[in-house]
Structure formats: structure tokens, C-alpha cells
Write a structure and sequence with these properties.
By secondary structure, this protein is mostly helical. It is about 50% helix and about 10% strand. The chain has helices at about 35-60, 80-105; strands at about 5, 15-20. The protein has a two-stranded antiparallel sheet. The protein is globular, with a radius of gyration of 15 Å.
């Protein structure tokens, strides 16, 4: 899945577009204009995308490269905290799988 993003100011969501979903409704939206629907959609994306990025970064030996997606102050920092948690889950999942593969080869 190809995507592009930019981390905007503390007051706006990142600009985001992907080959899969195009430009979502929350892309570049100022936090004053954020709706509950936008936040729900964004949380769904985070649950999938952050974990995927964490897994991919771990597999490629570039852990931490995509650990920041949102400005830490955007919407009181909650979305970045969630991103970081899901990103770490992806890292851990890949590392656990690698450990199991090594053990099974013994």
C-alpha cells in the first residue's frame, strides 16, 4: 500500500493520501473542524496502519522511522499516543515472530 503524509501543525491533521483509500475526509482538517465521524475513521486507520508500519519498519531494520504520525499537540495528543501504541504492537509482533522462527529452527 503506497501512501504519502506530512505532519502538519499542532492544529491540523496530517495531509494524507494512499493508493487504497485516496484522500480521507480528515486529511489536513483543522482540529476545530474535526467531527466525531472523522475521529472514528482516523482511529480505524491508526489501528491498522500504525501496526503495519511498525511491523514493516521492524522487518526492514528501520524501527522508529514511522513512529510519529501526528503532531504531539494535535487533538490533545491522543491520536499520536494511540499511533505509538499500535506502531509498537507491530514492532513487537514482528520481533516475536522472528524469535519463534529462530527457535523452531533449533
Amino acid at each position: 500500500m503506497g501512501y504519502t503524509r506530512t505532519i502538519d501543525t499542532s492544529n491540523a491533521a496530517p495531509e494524507y493520501k494512499s493508493n487504497t483509500i485516496g484522500i480521507p475526509i480528515w486529511s489536513s482538517v483543522h482540529e476545530e473542524d474535526f467531527t466525531p465521524e472523522m475521529e472514528r475513521e482516523l482511529r480505524l486507520l491508526i489501528a491498522f496502519e500504525a501496526k503495519l508500519q511498525g511491523n514493516n519498519d521492524s522487518a526492514q531494520g528501520r524501527v522508529g522511522e514511522n513512529e510519529i504520525f501526528f503532531h504531539n499537540e494535535f487533538l490533545s495528543g491522543g491520536l499520536q499516543k494511540l499511533w505509538k501504541i499500535k506502531y509498537q504492537e507491530g514492532n513487537n509482533g514482528h520481533q516475536n515472530m522472528q524469535s519463534k522462527l529462530m527457535i523452531s529452527r533449533l
